[in-house]
Specification:
The chain is of the alpha/beta class. It has helices spanning 37-47, 64-74, 122-126, 135-139, 142-157, 175-185, 199-203, 209-218, 258-271, 276-290, 303-313, and strands spanning 6-11, 15-20, 31-35, 52-59, 81-84, 89-94, 102-106, 128-134, 161-165, 191-195, 223-228, 233-238, 241-246. Helices cover 36% and strands 24% of the residues.
């Protein structure tokens, strides 16, 4: 794959996922898979037939071979996944019918926290159309935070499109930390994804989506996508125009990482020369289908399923 121009490179963590549709206290069996926000973005784009690379540090433990084999079977370029002598992180997710989702992270001092500037290769970044990372990647460690900034700096220098999602979670970062991550990377960002429920309320003292978009546009962000559960859709701003794209479905089982699936599908479409609004429509279908299953990556859809719906709606 090294001879092929990549559509997308994502930088971030890899985690083992254990999921169930029962409450955690009742579940006798949990399904093993894998996840991590930027990894979901990578797989979502790859399943839509993009060429995708993943940059991370993988722990040399009992899960290493399982995860590496899965990623290679997906077709991800793993040439910049470094094996380190640390454990891999784990998260547990439960979505029992009629119950609130349960989510537990075990991600302190894990292998991806070893990610550093040494893992950022200029020629590799230059080989891609788009580079993506998130606030969760930055939260792994100070070294990982420096790696993200350096990767974005290189991307901007060589004309690679940069995309970023704060992906704020109170389980992972304090609000002040999230603001620091965001402000540090904003000057290097071309495409910005934000959640009105989590990101905009944490990072801005502004309630109006219109004013948030204006504020971000003034910083030079070219494309802004704000995901709004309240409005049941996505506000897509590009070239000073804002368009609303509705959620594909209300039939939702588990929203775990559906926002990441959206990002991966959106970036896939941008790399394939779709407009931001067209990309949002494709991504809305992808995220909607993903949310009809359990877990992060297991339910992420493939090209034919998504495009069959997209072409029928055009």
């Amino acid at each position: 794959m090294n001879d092929i121009k990549l559509d997308l490179i994502t930088i971030g963590e890899c985690l083992i996922e254990f999921s169930t549709n029962q409450k955690l206290k009742d579940a006798e069996c949990l399904h093993k898979y894998y996840g991590g926000d930027t990894l979901v973005v990578a797989v979502a784009a790859k399943r839509l037939n993009s060429n995708v690379g993943f940059v991370s540090c993988l722990g040399n433990d009992a899960f290493k071979d399982y995860m590496l084999t899965c990623w290679q079977e997906e077709g991800l370029d793993t040439t910049h996944v470094k094996i380190v002598d640390d454990k891999n992180g784990i998260y547990l997710v439960s979505r029992a019918p009629g119950e609130h989702k349960e989510f537990i992270y075990y991600r302190k001092k894990i292998a991806p926290a070893k990610l550093s500037i040494d893992d950022i290769n200029t020629n590799y970044i230059k080989s891609s159309k788009i580079l993506y990372a998130s606030g969760i990647t930055q939260s792994l460690s100070m070294a990982a935070r420096e790696a993200v900034k350096e990767a974005f700096r290189i991307a901007k220098e060589y004309g690679v499109i940069t995309a970023y999602d704060p992906n704020y979670s109170s389980l992972i970062s304090a609000p002040d930390e999230a603001k620091e991550y965001f402000n540090e990377i904003l000057p290097y960002t071309d495409i910005l994804f934000m959640s009105s429920k989590y990101d905009t309320k944490t990072l801005f003292d502004i309630d109006s989506i219109e004013n948030i978009i204006k504020n971000l546009s003034d910083y030079g962000v070219k494309t802004i996508v704000i995901k709004s559960g309240e409005n049941k859709g996505y506000f897509v701003n590009s070239q000073m125009n804002t368009t609303f794209v509705p959620f594909y479905t209300d039939n939702v089982i588990d929203t775990t990482s559906s926002g990441d699936a959206f990002n991966g599908a959106f970036l896939h479409a941008i790399a394939k020369s779709y407009s931001p609004v067209e990309a949002a429509k494709i991504a809305s279908i992808d995220a909607g289908l993903q949310a009809q299953g359990i877990g992060a990556i297991k339910s992420t859809p493939y090209h034919d399923e998504v495009y069959k719906i997209y072409t029928s709606e055009e």
